[in-house]
Amino acid sequence: MRTIWLTGAEWTAVLRIGLGLWWLESWRHKDRKGWLERGTGITWAAGVAARHRWQAVRTGFDKVVAPRPKAMAYVVVHAELALGLGLISGFLTPVALVGGLLLNLLYLVLMIHDWAEQGQNAMMALISLVSLFAMSWQVWSLDHAIGLF
Questions:
Q1: Which tens digit of pLDDT belongs to each residue from 39-89?
Q2: Which of 63, 72, 98, 142 falls 20 to 30 Å from 47 in CA-CA distance?
């Protein structure tokens, strides 16, 4: 594919790296002490889930997250870090893209009523899909360097 300045594969790598930086920024700006020690993030999410109009969200939160708030806080915080680092470095890129897509869809469903959050999650999910189907790990990635995928 002919493009200005970079090849098509390089542009999709730029998109992948940008998404990784977005995940890393999401991790960086989190109050990790609050999330991991005081449980503020899961407490906030519990309030959102309790008022959710979909019974499946309330039930799912009560069965999966509520019984193990500390573990879920660690999962969220460290998943955002792992996604950021994986996408920036291009290591296990398809796994990171699918994981990020699922996390964004989870956020999207949980925050269905908060329009400020919807744009970010929808855009990140779209970038994940484009990066996945364009195989953005073809250049500028550890996956390509070591012959994975």
A1: 999 999 999 999 999 999 999 999 999 999 999 999 999 999 999 999 999
A2: 98
